[in-house]
Design a protein that fits this description.
The chain is an alpha/beta fold. Helices cover 50% and strands 10% of the residues.
Length: 377
């Protein structure tokens, strides 16, 4: 990943930030959108507690995090310490297995696109940490077939994008001897027996209820969920994992839960283990802490191919601020950290907990200006 550059704090940049704050704050005065979270669409201010209730998953409690730290002997990742990974399905079961010395594997994936941004990298960076901590094998699915079925992308281009994205994913530093990255178009024939079994035990009515398919959708869309489900069963990787029923842990964003609710429902009927999951929150766009970063919004994203100057300019100009409209008001009232994008990004990327807390305290009290916080970022 490129290093986000330091932003110099000068009279010029401070005045510019104050002006940007006023514009940003005005832009942020929007009507509250209704929350929409699906595998393909995330809109509105996301209420994660409501998602947990609606999806039927569980809070990732401090007790679980503490137990993981005791079992592994490793300091917990900052995204666990700060609640970025916030929910799970049967994660306690994975810890039970680990405590007994039973092996499991990791599964995550990606729908290929032309430009990967920071939001895309969150699950992969965390998965890399999990692989290091648990020493387990990993499979990474590149769903070039999904891109073709659900988007206006030619099949050959979707396949090319999968290989292009694979280079960026590999750069995370996964264990080469324990990591298998595959394109669905290339590996499909190995998974097909598992896919067929899943499809036979999942009705179209179930798929329509879970994913919202309708009569105008192509039939490939209705068939695809079984393709994303298949890697959650080690039977799909007999030549890679050399076992038919190894437990699986899936780190992913919460919007992917629909696929794996279906997967977990069908698992007992196939005599397979239900996969466990651990869910992350969405990485916010520069415009504000609603929805998630999107590659289609150039001014809202930081792409991993951006150079230092582009990143610096984009953050300075477009990062929504919780600071006040003038320097005097900021010194008097301080910033609203709950809406400030730069501070939220620091929560994702600044490792030092004490330094983060110090910045948050000073910024909220008016001892720091927006430009100074962006300098830390």
């Amino acid at each position: 990943l490129p290093t986000v550059p330091i932003v110099e704090v000068t009279k010029e940049t401070t005045e510019s930030n104050i002006e940007n704050n006023e514009n940003n704050n005005n832009e942020g005065e929007e009507k509250k959108e209704e929350q929409v979270v699906t595998p393909w669409t995330v809109e509105g201010a996301v209420d994660y507690d409501k998602l947990i209730r609606d999806f039927g998953c569980n809070h990732l409690t401090q007790d679980l995090i503490d137990r993981m730290e005791r079992l592994t002997g490793k300091k917990m990742h900052r995204w666990l310490r700060r609640g970025m990974f916030f929910s799970h399905r049967d994660f306690s079961h994975i810890l039970d297995l680990y405590e007994k010395g039973i092996k499991f594997y990791l599964y995550t994936g990606r729908g290929p696109s032309s430009n990967m941004h920071l939001g895309h990298m969150i699950p992969f960076m965390f998965t890399k940490w999990l692989q290091d901590v648990f020493g387990c094998p990993l499979v990474i699915q590149l769903t070039d077939d999904e891109k073709f079925l659900f988007k206006d992308v030619p099949l050959e281009e979707a396949h090319r994008l999968a290989f292009d994205n694979a280079r960026d994913i590999i750069a995370c530093g996964f264990d080469v001897k324990k990591t298998f990255i595959f394109s669905n178009l290339d590996y499909f024939h190995h998974m097909y027996p598992t896919i067929l079994k899943i499809q036979k035990f999942c009705t179209y009515n179930q798929a329509r209820a879970i994913f919202g398919f309708n009569g105008s959708d192509n039939i490939g869309k209705a068939a695809f969920p079984a393709v994303q489900a298949a890697p959650a069963f080690s039977a799909a990787f007999e030549t890679v994992l050399h076992t038919k029923n190894m437990p699986c842990l899936i780190p992913c964003a919460i919007d992917q839960d629909a696929y794996f609710r279906m997967t977990r429902d069908v698992a007992p009927r196939l005599n397979y283990r239900k996969p466990s999951l651990i869910f992350c929150k969405f990485f916010p766009p520069l415009q504000g802490l609603t929805g998630k970063m999107s590659g289609s919004s150039v001014n809202g994203a930081v792409y991993i191919t951006d150079d230092a100057k582009t990143i610096k300019n984009r953050i300075n100009k477009h990062a929504f601020s919780g600071g006040q409209e003038t320097m005097e008001l900021q010194r008097k009232h301080g910033a609203n950290l709950a809406v400030d994008v730069s501070y939220e990004w620091l929560r994702f990327f600044l490792e030092d907990d004490e330094k983060l807390a110090d910045i948050g305290e000073k910024y909220s009290k008016g001892e720091l200006l927006t430009g100074e916080v962006k300098k830390e970022l």
